[in-house]
Amino acid sequence: DFTLNNIDGKPVKLSEYKGKKLLLVNVASKCGYTPQYEELQKLYEIYKGKLTILAFPANNFGGQEPGTSEDIKSFCSENYGVTFPIFEKISDKHPLYRWLSDKKLNGWNNEEPSWNFCKYFINEKGELVKFFPSKVKPMDKEIIELIEA
Predict the structure, then answer these.
(1) Which of 33, 65, 80, 116 could form a disulfide with 37 if both were Cys (CB 3.0 to 4.6 A apart)?
(2) pLDDT at position 35, please?
(3) How many CB atoms lie within 10 A of CB 134?
(4) Catalytic member of 31, 136, 139, 147
(5) Quick one: DSSP state of residue 140?
(6) How many other CB atoms sit within 10 Å of the CB of residue 5?
(7) Cα torsion 134, 89, 38, 83: sign
């Protein structure tokens, strides 16, 4: 039931992704985990029919995403060839992240993003299935197993 603006400022209803597995990632351009963009793009290309990756730039941790939407879009394209959906910069206090990190809302998970590149896996039914901290790489075996299940 969430609508957020994509990196170009156009509203996107997350319900458009109903029936698909989703990996939601809070991203930043100036973080030690930023090279994960490369693996995220690889994962997206391999599993494009089964998985959609949604990137949410945020400046919450260490001010590591200071750029404008245009800066972020250029950075992701030029450095990592990103083709998965990227949204406008949001805060970890956004209603989407409140839903992802409040078990009263999502049914089980209280894990808030602890840093950039935390990952939330949502199944085809729109249910939050798993939280992965920043250190878990996009091509991790557990993420692959969730995609292929």
Answers:
(1) 80
(2) 98
(3) 19
(4) 31
(5) -
(6) 14
(7) positive
- Sequence-ordered list of residues with C-beta below 8 angstroms from that of 137, at least 6 positions apart, any chain: 36, 39
> Is residue 76 annotated as part of the catalytic site, yes or no?
no
Using the predicted structure, report yes or no on whether residue 92 has a pLDDT greater than 70: no
The answer to whether the pTM exceeds 0.85 is yes
Closest CA to 55 of 33, 63, 46: 33
Mean pLDDT of the chain: 96
Q: What is the CB neighbour count within 10 angstroms for residue 113? A: 23
**pLDDT tens digits, one per residue of 37-53:** 999 999 999 999 899 99
Residue whose pair of structure tokens reads 């939407």 in the numeric block: 69
Residue given tokens 């998985």 in the structure block = 51
